[in-house]
DNA sequence: GATGCTATTGAGTGTGCGACCAATAAGCAA
DNA sequence: TTGCTTATTGGTCGCACACTCAATAGCATC
C-alpha cells in the first residue's frame, strides 16, 4: 500500500553490471574528469541507486582506477593496434602522430594529465597509471623495434626512443589543454620531429597529412628533404560535453 | 565570565596578513597540492581561524590562483633571473636545464601538472596559468633572442623555440612525477637535446655539468658517456611533507 | 587613559561526499 | 506454482568543505 511508489528494479548478472559500471565511469572520466566519478554521478548515469555502485566497488578509488585503465587501454588499442599490422611501422607511426596531435586525442590527453595528478593522492590509481605507461611504452617500442628490424628505423634503444616520444606527446598535451585551442602545427610538429630524430628518419618522414605544406621550412633550421608521403587516416571527431565542477 | 577562554588575537595590517596568507597557501600548494588549499588548512598553517581567510579571500578560488601565481613567479625568478645576467645565454640555459631536470624542480613540476589539471574546473586559476605560461615563455624566449643577437644561437623564431623547450620540460615533469623516481639521465637529456637542436648548437652544448661527457656523440644513437659528478649548481633540498588526501 | 576603527573570532548554515545496512523484489530452480 | 538466492534499494551516518555574520578585542590616535 502507501503512496510511496517502489522503484522498478532491473536485475542483471554481476559481470554485466560490473562492466556497465566501469564503462559509465570511463565515459565520465573522459568527458568530465576522474574527480567526477562519484557514487551518485555514476548511479545517475546508469539510472540506478548509489548503493549499487558501492556494492560492486566498496572503495570508489578502485572504480576510478578501473575506469582509467579501461579508457586508456581502449585508446591504446585504436592508437597502436596489436593485431594485423596492415602497414609499415613508419605508416603506423605517422598515423599515431596524426591522432595524438589531433582533436580526437583531446579527451585522452586530458585524462592522462588528470590521472597523473590524481595518482599523487590515490595509490591504486597510481599503480594503474604505471601499468598503463608500461603498456604504452611497450606497444610503441614494439613498433619501433619492428621498424628497426626491417631497416626502416635506426636507433640503439627502442625503449628509450619510445619513452622520449611519449614524453613529448604528454608535454604537448599538457600545454594544449591549458590553452584555448590546440597548438599550431608548428608546435605539434615537435612530436613527429622528435621521433624522426630518434629514429634516424629524414625530416617530414612522419608528418601529418594535413601539415604537408612546405616541409623543411618549418621544423628548425634544416632545409630538408623528403616529401611526406600522405598516410591516409583521419581521426574521427569525438563528442565532447561541457565540463562540470567537481567540488 | 564562563570557562571558555577567549583566543588570543594577533592583529596585523591587511597587507601583511594578505601576503602571509598567500605565502602559506603557496607553500601548501608546492608541498601538498592546490586541492589542499582549504580555509581550514591555511588557517591552521597560520594559527588563525578559518573565517579570517574567508575575510581576505571571499572566494577560495582566488586564493588558489594567487598561490599558484606566487609560487610560479618565484620559481621563474630563480630559474631565469631577469636582472644582471652574469653569464652568457648559453650558460644561462645550461643552468636552466640543470635545475628543471633536477630534484629541486620536483615540487614545481608537480605544481604545474596540478595547476594545468585543476584549471579545467577553475576559471580564475586557468587565467593565472595562462599568464604564467606567457611569462615563462617570454622570459625564455628573451634569453634565446639575446643569444641569437650575440651569435650564440641560431633559430628563426625564438618564441617557437621557447615553447618547444617548455613543452619537453613539462612532458618530462609529468612522467617523472608518476614514476617512483626521476627519469634516468638518458631521458632527461631530451630536454637539453631538444634545445640544442632548436638553437643550432652542437650536441652536449647545454649539457648539465655532470653530463658533460663527450659532447657531440651523445644525443641520439650514441652511448651516453660520463657518470654524474657533482654539478656546480646544486639546488637546495626542499622540505617535503607526506601528502594528504584532499577529498 | 579613554575612544573609535576594524581585524579577528566563534558559531552556525547548507551541500556533497563515501560508506554502511536492513529490507525488498527479481528471476531462476525445484 | 512455490520457494530461495541475491541483486538492488532506500535511508542514514559522519565528515569536510565554502561561505556568512554578529560579536569581540587589538591597537593607533587623541
Write up this protein.
Two copies of one chain form a homodimer. Chain A has 247 residues and is an all-alpha fold. Chain A has a domain at 66-198: Tetracycline Repressor, domain 2, CATH 1.10.357. Chain A contains nine helices and no strands. Chain A is elongated, with a radius of gyration of 21 Å. Residues 211-247 of chain A have low confidence and may be disordered. The interface between A and B is large, with 50 and 53 residues. The structure holds a DNA duplex (30 and 30 nucleotides).
Per CATH, the superfamily of the domain at 66-198 in chain A is Tetracycline Repressor, domain 2
Helix percent of chain A reads 55-70%
By CATH reckoning, the class of the domain at 66-198 in chain A would read Mainly Alpha
Estimated share of beta-strand residues of chain A: under 5%
Largest interface: A-B, 50 and 53 residues
What's the gyration radius of chain A in Å? 21 Å
Distance between the termini of chain A: 40 Å
Largest sheet of chain A: none
Instruction: Summarize the helix and strand pattern of chain A as letters.
Output: HHHHHHHHH
Low-confidence stretches of chain A: 211-247
Shape of chain A: elongated
The number of helical runs of chain A is 9
Amino acid at each position: 500500500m502507501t503512496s510511496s511508489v517502489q522503484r522498478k528494479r532491473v536485475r542483471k548478472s554481476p559481470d554485466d553490471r560490473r562492466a556497465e559500471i566501469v564503462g559509465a565511469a570511463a565515459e565520465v572520466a573522459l568527458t568530465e574528469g576522474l574527480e567526477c566519478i562519484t557514487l551518485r554521478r555514476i548511479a545517475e548515469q546508469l539510472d540506478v541507486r548509489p548503493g549499487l555502485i558501492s556494492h560492486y566497488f566498496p572503495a570508489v578509488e578502485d572504480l576510478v582506477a578501473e575506469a582509467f585503465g579501461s579508457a586508456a587501454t581502449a585508446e591504446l588499442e585504436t592508437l597502436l593496434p596489436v593485431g594485423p599490422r596492415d602497414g609499415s611501422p613508419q605508416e603506423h607511426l605517422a598515423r599515431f602522430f596524426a591522432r595524438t596531435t589531433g582533436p580526437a586525442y583531446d579527451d585522452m590527453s586530458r585524462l592522462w594529465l588528470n590521472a597523473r595528478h590524481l595518482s599523487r593522492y590515490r595509490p591504486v590509481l597510481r599503480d594503474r597509471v604505471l601499468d598503463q605507461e608500461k603498456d604504452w611504452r611497450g606497444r610503441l617500442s614494439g613498433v619501433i623495434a619492428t621498424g628497426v628490424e626491417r631497416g626502416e628505423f635506426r636507433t640503439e634503444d627502442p625503449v628509450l626512443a619510445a619513452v622520449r616520444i611519449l614524453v613529448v606527446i604528454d608535454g604537448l598535451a599538457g600545454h594544449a589543454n591549458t590553452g584555448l585551442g590546440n597548438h599550431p602545427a608548428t608546435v605539434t610538429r615537435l612530436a613527429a620531429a622528435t621521433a624522426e630524430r630518434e629514429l634516424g628518419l629524414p625530416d617530414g618522414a612522419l608528418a601529418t597529412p594535413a601539415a604537408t605544406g612546405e616541409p623543411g621550412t618549418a621544423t628548425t633550421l634544416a632545409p630538408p628533404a623528403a616529401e611526406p608521403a600522405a598516410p591516409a587516416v583521419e581521426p574521427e571527431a569525438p563528442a565532447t560535453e561541457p565540463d562540470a565542477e567537481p567540488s
